[in-house]
Amino acid sequence: MNSTVSPSEGVQYSRKNPYFAQLLINKKLTGTGSEKDTRHIEIDLAGSGMRYTVGDSLAVLPENDPELVEEIIRAIGAQGDEQVPDADKQPSTLREALLKSYAITEPPKKFLEVLCERSAKAAEKIRPLLAAEAKKELENFLWGREVIDLLLEYPEAGWTPADLVGTLKKLLIRLYSIASSQKMFPDAVHLTVAAVRYESLGRKRKGVASTFLADRAEGKKFATFVQATKHFHLPENPDTPVIMVGPGTGIAPFRAFLQDRQSDGIKGRTWLFFGEQRRASDFLYEEEFDAMLKNGVLEKISTAFSRDQAHKIYVQHRMLEEGAELWRWLDAGAVFYVCGDASRMAKDVDLALHQVVEKFGGQTPEAAAEYVQQMTKEHRYLKDVY
Ligand SMILES: Cc1cc2nc3c(=O)[nH]c(=O)nc-3n(C[C@H](O)[C@H](O)[C@H](O)COP(=O)(O)OP(=O)(O)OC[C@H]3O[C@@H](n4cnc5c(N)ncnc54)[C@H](O)[C@@H]3O)c2cc1C
Ligand SMILES: NC(=O)c1ccc[n+]([C@@H]2O[C@H](COP(=O)([O-])OP(=O)(O)OC[C@H]3O[C@@H](n4cnc5c(N)ncnc54)[C@H](OP(=O)(O)O)[C@@H]3O)[C@@H](O)[C@H]2O)c1
To answer: What is the pLDDT at residue 160?
Structure first.
């Protein structure tokens, strides 16, 4: 282990000046019987001069699924070699532009508007949904419905390649929490990626970037850059206790935090809450955390496997079960970190945090709310949720 890497050195890559990286390792973390496909991804940084700090995210510009690209080309009766401008207005072929430049899954509003101009049948169904007051209805209509579905449903729209791409948006980067410390891996960056796969309207769907990394990135160079975190840092004082709540892929930055502390020779004062569906198939990085418990880098781990019993057990239930000790850590000045699902988990964990302060800190609900607010002000309650 060495800690000679300084985050302030190195080459600054950005959206406009990305580093074209290659995959080193793509390993399935979830085992037989899992409902998830979560990958450990390692990306080669050798010779790049790219520097990151734990808590940062990596931006990845994916390529679209070539099978979907071919379906879209077929659906508009094109060949793929037609000349079109790409999303940066540079000359391209239709195939290349659909593969690398345009977002081709979620239908943009402009696509829907032009579709309604080109097909009376589409207009009848979709135009009412484009009204400002029909926002929710439009959202429902679009849930699980992609550009390809609408091209196939309304073939009479008669798209030319240029007209179609003229309605599409630019393909965007996706962010992934960095799961490694560069002190331990100077020439690589690790990610923990849940491949988004689902079925809708009788068709198998793939999340663009997560399945690019899981299925299609091997042997390719893809654009990346570090999105530095403004707030999600380890405490400066290594004696400050660290509580990390990271179910699912929310584990990623905490693996990085622990690696960083291990590289710096810091032991103890770390408590990890991890949750997934099943212990046997979904305990991400179990062996690594076992080793860190043994070598003292990780002081304590509390796990919540939601589907190993009839009723759901989540990380927030473990927080409440361990409330007395959790309160002692908070009272000793611990920093409380949360990473992962923003829509439900982070809200429930926030509620549990309030309950712990109230019940085990002996405070009124108002005082507990104030306490948590104060934690936020003091940068002792930090979230990286998505
Ligand atoms: C700061 C930050 C850190 C992140 N860190 C991580 C990380 O460490 N690991 C990780 O895996 N992800 C992480 N993410 C999420 C990641 O950026 C991507 O959003 C995720 O991988 C999905 O991208 P995609 O391109 O694969 O899917 P997209 O092509 O963007 O598709 C996702 C969309 O598909 C639709 N969809 C999904 N499921 C269904 C369904 N069942 N039915 C109908 N529609 C559906 C939804 O509209 C959803 O928004 C992070 C996000 C942020 C902002
Ligand atoms: N934007 C996207 O398209 C996209 C793509 C990938 C992931 N994500 C999001 O990224 C996050 C991580 O996904 P992931 O697949 O790694 O894990 P996840 O879906 O967050 O699941 C991890 C664990 O959290 C549990 N859980 C469910 N609801 C919870 C709650 N309210 N409070 C606490 N725990 C809860 C799950 O249990 P059960 O499953 O048994 O309920 C599971 O045991 C999620 O937000 C996911 O939606 C988003």
So the answer is: 98
